[in-house]
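Milestone M4 deliverable, item 7.
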Amino acid sequence: MHIRQAAAMTGLTPRAIRYYEQTGLLPASARTEGGYRFYSGDDIDRLRWIAALREWGIPLSSIAGMLDSLGDREAFLLAAGAARQSLYEQWLDASAALKSLDQGMAAWQSRAELPSLDQLNELSRELQQQRKTRGSWTDGIGWDVMAAVAGEEAPVRSLPAGYSLERYRATLEELADWLDPLPGETGADLGCGTGNLTRLLTAGGARLIAVDVSSSMLSLLARSLPQIETRQGNLLALPLPDRSCHFAASSFVLQHLRHDERLLALQEMRRVLLPGGRLAIAAPLTDRELQRLRRPLAADSCEIYSCGDGMLLAVVS
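Output delivered:
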């Protein structure tokens, strides 16, 4: 069929179809004697995929990877997960920008004069800092490589020197006991690794979402816990909606972050928790480092149950 027929069948414009050809999203195929491209049934299917994924706002660079992995379920899900993480990052950035603009507009409408440049900069300072913190984060550990080398033991390999396996397991059990997940609740294991804490949190029948920056870690978790929903993402931009979790846990992750990154991660954890949601964090941090994380929680009237000995337990407001 010719391009106008292809456009009618896919809901795309001829111009869009030509653009997808130029960018390589639509592979070259046969042409008529007059030099016009002939669109096959496979071409139409591929164009429909592109159109559907674009409706979700997925960028063309991500769509290319998803289309290339259509024959491999696991590869497709990994590509889709990476695209979802990118969309969440864009959404979080836009939400923060709108919040800052709303605050500015409310202040400006109550004044007779226009805002000064200094006032604009003051309003956007927190937004700029968040962007800088998110943008500067790097995977300094190399979790994908560690997962490939150590397999399911990868999280244990990252423990600090002198931290025993027995203490590690006891800490995970203490987190799970305090959170006490109930049937019908939704929770998140943030920085789940290969699922050592995930397994404990799902024992009571709660729905759990396991989040990790490493696709290799998530693949290992999915093989041993196929019933668990996994999402690729890091703690600075969680791929979860606002107020969607009754509880959230993070074990042995925050020690790998700078203090400004920890504060942003804590802000993200609070964002995804429902009012009254339970938060449990374990990390080999000093009591002073934990107190610096406690302060923003206490300032917002969160109820602190424990803060010390490598653990922070709280109920958020």
